[in-house]
């Protein structure tokens, strides 16, 4: 699979997940008080905070996969069978099952969110994470625009060809 295909797949996945989870967050914001100022954690204080972690799995039969993951304790957290994707949760473990949306599996980190898609008060902004990763000589694609604020994403590939998506929705 070439990088252009992986990029398209990552952007589509990011959009689908972001759209649905943003819808959930909008409902929660009306119910809860949230802070208006996001405190960005200083990277020098400790290790980078990458946010919620999930695994996005490309599946052949979403219904069979749903049944399998439910049988080992996962429950549907978000998504839609009609749209061929579900986000499933067991404790703080998250997986996304996607039928026909991309090839291969993708590791995903969401800076600024916890495993319940709730905003974190302190987190490392995606642009700081990207700068740190690039300083280690790791190539990212496409790069998040470091002159902006708010939602952004970038991807990288580990030495074994696994795609890792960093996707900040706020």
Walk me through this protein's architecture:
With 170 residues, the chain is of the alpha/beta class. The protein has one domain: 2,3-Dihydroxybiphenyl 1,2-Dioxygenase, domain 1, CATH 3.10.180. Helix content is 29%, strand content 28%. It has helices at 3-31, 62-71, 126-135; strands at 39-40, 52-59, 75-80, 85-90, 93-99, 106-110, 122-123, 152-157, 163-168. Strand 4 (85-90) and strand 5 (93-99) form a beta hairpin. The radius of gyration is 16 Å and the shape is globular.
Brief sketch in words of this structure:
With 170 residues, the protein is an alpha/beta fold. Helix content is 29%, strand content 28%.
Topology:
Elements: H1 3-31, E1 39-40, E2 52-59, H2 62-71, E3 75-80, E4 85-90, E5 93-99, E6 106-110, E7 122-123, H3 126-135, E8 152-157, E9 163-168
Could you tell me the number of beta strands? Answer: 9
> Regarding CATH, which class?
Alpha Beta
Q: Helical proportion?
A: 25-40%
Q: What is the radius of gyration computed over CA atoms, rounded to a whole number of angstroms?
A: 16 Å
The CATH architecture comes to Roll
The overall pLDDT average reads 82
Name the CATH homologous superfamily. Answer: 2,3-Dihydroxybiphenyl 1,2-Dioxygenase, domain 1
Enumerate the spans where pLDDT stays under 50 for 5 or more consecutive residues: 23-27, 29-44
